[in-house]
Amino acid sequence: MIDQVGRQPERSVRQSCRVLGIRRKTYYERKQGNRPEERDEQLIELLKRTCSRFVAWGFWMTFYYLRNEHGIKDNHKRVYRLWKQAGLHLRLPPKRPRIRREYQELLAPESVNEGWAMDFVSDWVIGPEKQSVRVINIMDECSRRALCVRFPLSATTI
User: Where is each HTH-like domain found (predicted)?
Assistant: First the structure.
């Protein structure tokens, strides 16, 4: 209000406020919610141009670039708010196509010797030295009969 009426250079803010009948707090009060939209739009445009030029950069690299190269003096919190508002924080990697495989049901063998199963079993042997033992089991899938149980004597312990 004082600036609109025209503050005289020889008068202080205090004297001007007294003449107009307003408090000095009102003169210095920051207007809430009165952000310059044009400046925000310019900064958003600059952010978008920088991000399209440097695709791999995140927020901090872009912020430092704008500060050093373009002389942006804005707070990092304000720039980050505009960064999110512009939707630049949503950098998702492109989706890879999934390989679809046809799953076939495992068929149970109908007669003996159609399918065998092999399994390694390990255990501890209690004795003067605690040793690990590995045993190989081979069995028929139809009859569930053990065809071979081998314990290699020369096998090294785990």
Answer: 38-95
pLDDT tens digits along 40-67: 889 999 999 999 999 889 999 999 999 9
Assess contact for 47 and 78: CB atoms under 8 A. Answer: no
Q: For residue range 76-127, what is the model confidence (pLDDT) as tens digits? A: 999 999 999 999 887 777 888 988 888 888 888 889 999 999 998 888 877 7
Residues in the chain: 158
CA distances from 7 to 20, 25, 31, 103 (A): 11, 16, 20, 84
Task: Sheet containing 116-125: give its strands across.
Answer: 116-125, 131-140, 146-150
Q: What are phi and psi of 60, to 5 degrees?
A: -65, -40
- Would you state the structure tokens that stand for residue 94, as one six-digit string? 């492109």
Residue 6: domain span: 1-32
Q: Are strands 146-150 and 116-125 parallel, antiparallel or unpaired?
A: unpaired
Q: Is residue 67 one of the residues assigned to a domain?
A: yes
Kindly state whether residue 103 falls inside one of the protein's structural domains.
no
CA angle 10, 14, 19 (to 5 degrees): 85
